[in-house]
Amino acid sequence: MSEHTSGSGDQDYKPATFEKRVAAWMGIAYMLLFLGIFLFSLYHPGGSLQGTFPLFLLPVCIGLSVVIVFRLKEKTAPGGPVVGIIVLLLCIAGAIFGLLMGMPALIAAITG
User: pLDDT tens-digit profile of 42-94?
Assistant: First the structure.
């Protein structure tokens, strides 16, 4: 009977790419958002967080911005630097939109 250890064999360790690590952090951010919604509904029975959906733009906009900045520094942005800068500006606009539309509704739901 042969035992397989994680260090043996002909498989080499390959760390995750930068994009995969950013996607993992985005997943953690979304998990925290869902946890916050669950806890709010648990501690405020009948309460809802209406109007806070734009806050769900933040993790993807921030994550995509980080990836685009990384790709621009590495000079591997898809479509070249012009398209990369346009996508970066759209991500920044989406994050600002998400904050401006979601935060007042979140504050109103928490305080009221």
Answer: 888 877 888 889 999 999 999 999 999 999 999 998 889 999 999 999 999 99
The pTM for the full model equals 0.80
Q: Quick one: which H or E segment has residue 41?
A: helix 18-43
In degrees, rounded to 5, the angle at the alpha carbon of residue 92 between the alpha carbons of residues 79 and 65 is 55
Q: Which amino acid type is present at position 95? A: A
Every domain of the chain and the residues it spans: 18-111
Separation between Cα atoms, residue 22 and residue 64, nearest integer Å: 8
Q: Look at residue 81 and give its three-state secondary structure.
A: helix
72 and 102 Cβ atoms separated by less than 8 Å? no
Cα–Cα nearest to 109, from 36, 21, 56, 27: 36
